[in-house]
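Thread: quick sanity check before group meeting

JM: Hey all, I'm pulling together slides for Thursday and realized we never actually wrote out the predicted structure for the chain we discussed last week. Dropping the sequence here so it's in one place. If anyone has concerns about the input, flag it before I start.
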Amino acid sequence: MRSRRALKSAGALVLLASSATACSGSRLGLPEPISVQGERMLHLWQGSWIAAFAVGGVVWGLIIWAVLFHRKRSNDLPPQVRYNMPIEILYTAVPFVIIAVLFYFTARDENFVEKTTDNPAVTVDVTGFQWSWQFDYKEKDAAGQEKLAARVVGQPVAPNGPAPAKPVMTIPTGKTVRVRLHSNDVIHSFWVPALIYKKDVMPGYTNEFEFTANKTGVYEGRCAELCGVDHSRMLFQLKVVTPDQYAKFIADSKAALAAGGAQ
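JM (edit): ok, ran it. Output follows.
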């Protein structure tokens, strides 16, 4: 009877732990990735959870085993295992192997996500300011010098005024996109949850990263660093389109720039 109650209690604890982790399907709480790099981060996240569940299962199994089969039945001292060299080596080696494996996969995937190329297909200078975003699309001329091809400027939030339309960063699918981050004032953070990636936007320093989107659609982005009174309204959208649609966007933007304006 006691064993049955103990098993029921253990099952209830497992269910409580599962619900507390906010697991949502196979992605375990993460949004569906829209880039090659995001998929790699998702796989690392899933692998970490598998390792955590495996270690947790072993630990809980040992605890339940000890509770069920090593309850006090007499005043005799149970067998002691102090100075048992094989067990102490096991205690040391197993955690070391687990940490080494996790470190290897983390370092491998971090290098993949942070890798940059020599000639990305699209380069966007992203400037964060209180409290909106500016997107400058750069392309190289015949001499190899960068020039402005398109510009999207978000409207800052007016005091006590309605929220302006979100600026939209448009990029093509299947192309390497380099994002260079700048700030005109304080520290911001560029975050698109669907990319499963965020990076600080710091004054006086240019952060950069690259990604390759593989799903079209419109995805929400925001500043993830508390940057002032209207931080929560510092929003934007990432619009992923086909290469043909992106080429049309750039052509229309060049025409707008030639007319003396920006989107």
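AS: nice. Residues 13-17, 19-23 have pLDDT under 50 and may be disordered. Helices lie at 2-20, 36-69, 85-114, 243-258.
JM: adding both to the slides.
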